[in-house]
Amino acid sequence: MTDAAFWDRIADKYAARPIADPDAYEATLERTAGHLAPTDRILELGCGTGGTARRLASSVAHVTATDIAPQMIRIATERQAAEGISNVEHLALPADADVPGAPFDAVVAFNLLHLSGPLAPALAHIRTQVGSGGLFISKTPCLGDMFFGIRLVLPLMRRFGKAPRATFFSAAQLRSEVERAGFEVVDDTTFGAAKNARYLVARRR
Questions:
Q1: Does domain 3-204 have CATH number 3.40.1190.20?
Q2: Which of 35, 70, 100, 155 is the residue whose CA sits 20 to 30 A from 134?
């Protein structure tokens, strides 16, 4: 099963699932909005059902929100229309696509990098979508810092179609790879109880 097919299959269930830690999510959004300007054009990669794009829309001029799963984009578009938000565009695109409108003032990727395969090529592509001096804002579960058993459980779940592909790395490895890709980290923190979910803001050099 491809990654896109996995997310298409679970899209409706995913859309119905509540946010695990609402306070941490709100803090993440507030911190992110503080790094953005009203004139910014931003790209969200791995937008899922579009909740983050819709929340950030009031802080910027325009949001282009992409996902590899067409069913996620369908739900995101429906919810955007229901909320009457006009400055968000949703696109179903491959992960390595050059997004129309690139480069952007900022690229946002929440809960995505651990699902994107090897970090180096994923980050190299993301850098091409960020304008000179622009920001890459990410929040990433660092599976390498979690209990060892997850390395055994996730591959087994993936074999039975119960989990997506995932890459294991630590928070230190993530930061190092982001810097190696040509970014300068300007914000590095966590929110809430999930201390393994690293929030990074990095400026393209």
A1: no
A2: 70
